[in-house]
Design brief:
The structure holds 2 protein chains of 2 kinds. Chain A is an alpha+beta fold. Chain A is about 35% helix and about 35% strand. In chain A, strands 1, 2, 3, 4, 5, 6, 7, 8, 9, 10, 11 and 12 form a 12-stranded mixed beta sheet that branches. A 3-stranded mixed beta sheet of chain A has the order 14-17-16, covered by helices on one side. Chain B is mainly alpha-helical. Chain B is built from 7 helices and no strands. Helices cover about 80% and strands about 0% of the residues of chain B. Chain B starts with a helix and ends with a helix. Classes of the chains: A alpha+beta, B mainly alpha.
């Protein structure tokens, strides 16, 4: 029987489910010390499959190592107090210092740990104009918000829902939803549709009356009540509006470059470019019609849009006119 | 010099100063910052895969962030340990060598438990260090027995993954 030989020959890692069963047995036996019936049942389970036995051996070793290490710390409660006290201190420091940069990686996870368990979790995140933030969610999903964006999260025992209310996000699936005892689908929703990622990374951007979905890794299904689900694969983009979802025309800029604080354009119209830059600054930014169709290719830093504007005259025949601090117009150079 | 060493050298000359500044802002201490900047580049030299150079600073920051957390964990363990044993009677106070060993041991356990939710960690430690039964833990923490069982199992699974799946 070649199939059986194959599966026996491969020394497979125990499946997570099997490891969890082994842990379950270990804890049951420990809590019902010396119960012969349980002992027997556990032995039967171990004998069922070599994977069971391997998981059992490892779990036992791990348990023995841990308790040996912890009990070799002298003094009553010293190990417990030290570990608890230091873990709290470390959590505070990470939240206060490491995460106070432009990217708040991990702070959401930290807050969540202190305020709520994984089951019921809701939170609102928003960015101001010109701000970008990143969050590591407790299930391992990474969420990045571009300028002037808002989401809220609704995590329950049944599902993980991210609602995009405004702006643009990048969602990166984080593998296993650790801590959840059963599968909870991850879904992202906005006013035009529901998007279900499968081990994916994707950008969702609201543009007036439609939403642009750009998948950069994995697969995302677009669900809507109007039609069958559509699978969008890595490298593909779709526009979703109230009526339909359709493949998007190529962009004249790099869709996710804002993550690195950049706008990267390919032969983009100046008027379109200024609309894009305007998302990152307050006030009014536009250009005279004579220069609107000039084309622009390059890499621009978003961190200071005044500087960004100031370098445009180096490549294009334009001048930047500040009517006020917040009312800027590009005109033909004289 | 291999091509990867050359790549690290190029990274070093363009970003070392910046990394130093980034670390100093977090550690508030120039000597520690210089040490960790050095460690960051040492880590890079030990890596075998090709360096991801598209976003070198993000890449360096990721490594440095891990080192900063290691550094803080070490400090926090030391501080918490010394605080805890300060209450012990003098006869039970461990020697300097014994202290160093215990701190190292606790550090490795703390690293393993990192990422666990506080309640999960607490329930697990009460079972492991203090040898309390799940029922006692449930009473002490004001949780249901089922939650305690799940927490302890979750924590063991977490440790299993770190120990065997890496």
């Amino acid at each position: 029987m070649p199939v059986d030989n194959l599966s026996l020959g491969r020394r497979a890692e125990p499946q997570p489910q099997v490891v969890k069963q082994a842990i379950h047995w270990l804890l049951r036996l420990r809590n019902n010390h010396g119960n012969p019936r349980l002992n027997h049942q556990c032995e039967q389970w171990r004998a069922e499959h070599h994977e069971h036995e391997l998981a059992w051996q490892r779990v036992q070793t791990l348990q023995a190592e841990l308790s040996h290490n912890l009990r070799s710390v002298p003094g009553a409660q010293v190990a417990f107090n030290t570990l608890e006290n230091s873990a709290q201190g470390l959590g505070r420091r990470q939240a206060l210092k490491l995460l106070s940069g432009a990217l708040l990686v991990g702070s959401a996870a930290w807050l969540a740990r202190d305020t709520a368990a994984w089951q019921q979790w809701s939170a609102d995140y928003a960015t101001a104009t010109g701000e970008r933030r990143a969050f590591q969610l407790p299930d391992g999903t990474r969420l990045e918000l571009n300028t002037a964006s808002a989401v809220d999260l609704d995590y329950t025992a049944q599902q993980r829902l991210i609602r995009l209310n405004r702006g643009e996000i990048i969602v990166t699936c984080g593998g296993a939803d650790e801590g959840a005892p059963f599968e909870r689908p991850l879904r992202v929703q906005d006013r035009h549709g529901t998007y279900e990622p499968f081990n994916a990374r994707f950008i969702l951007r609201q543009e007036g009356d439609c939403t642009r979905l750009s998948v950069t890794g994995g697969r995302v299904a677009i669900h809507s009540s109007r039609s069958a689900s559509i699978d969008v694969l890595a490298g593909q983009s779709y526009l979703v509006d109230r009526h339909q979802a359709r493949p998007a025309p190529p962009l004249d800029m790099e869709a996710g470059a804002w993550i690195d604080g950049l706008i990267v354009t390919r032969n983009m119209r100046l008027a379109d470019f200024l609309n894009e830059v305007a998302r990152y600054r307050h006030g009014l930014l536009n250009c005279a019609s004579q220069v609107a169709d000039l084309r622009l290719s390059g890499v621009f830093r978003l961190e200071d849009t005044d500087k960004l504007l100031a370098i445009l005259p180096q490549t294009l025949p334009v001048q930047v006119r500040y009517r006020t601090r917040w009312w800027v117009t590009l005109e033909r150079a004289v | 010099m291999s091509s990867s060493e050359l790549a690290v050298q190029a990274l070093y000359s363009s970003h070392h100063g910046w990394l130093n500044g980034w670390l100093r802002a977090r550690l508030g201490n120039a000597a520690d910052a210089a040490d960790l900047a050095q460690d960051t580049f040492l880590r890079l030299l030990q890596r075998t895969e090709r360096l991801e150079l598209k976003a070198p600073r993000a890449f360096l920051r990721t490594i440095a962030r891990g080192l900063v957390i290691d550094h803080w964990r070490r400090e926090e363990i030391e501080r918490a340990y010394l605080e805890t044993i300060a209450h012990l009677p003098e006869a039970e106070t461990p020697s300097a060598e014994a202290r160093a060993l215990v701190i190292e041991l606790l550090e490795s356990i703390a690293r393993m438990l990192e990422g666990l939710k506080p309640k999960v960690r607490q329930a697990f430690l009460l079972a492991q260090c203090e040898g309390l039964t799940h029922k006692q833990i449930a009473e002490q923490m004001g949780l249901s027995l089922r939650s305690v069982e799940r927490y302890v199992a979750d924590a063991l699974y977490h440790c299993y993954v770190l120990r065997y799946a890496a």
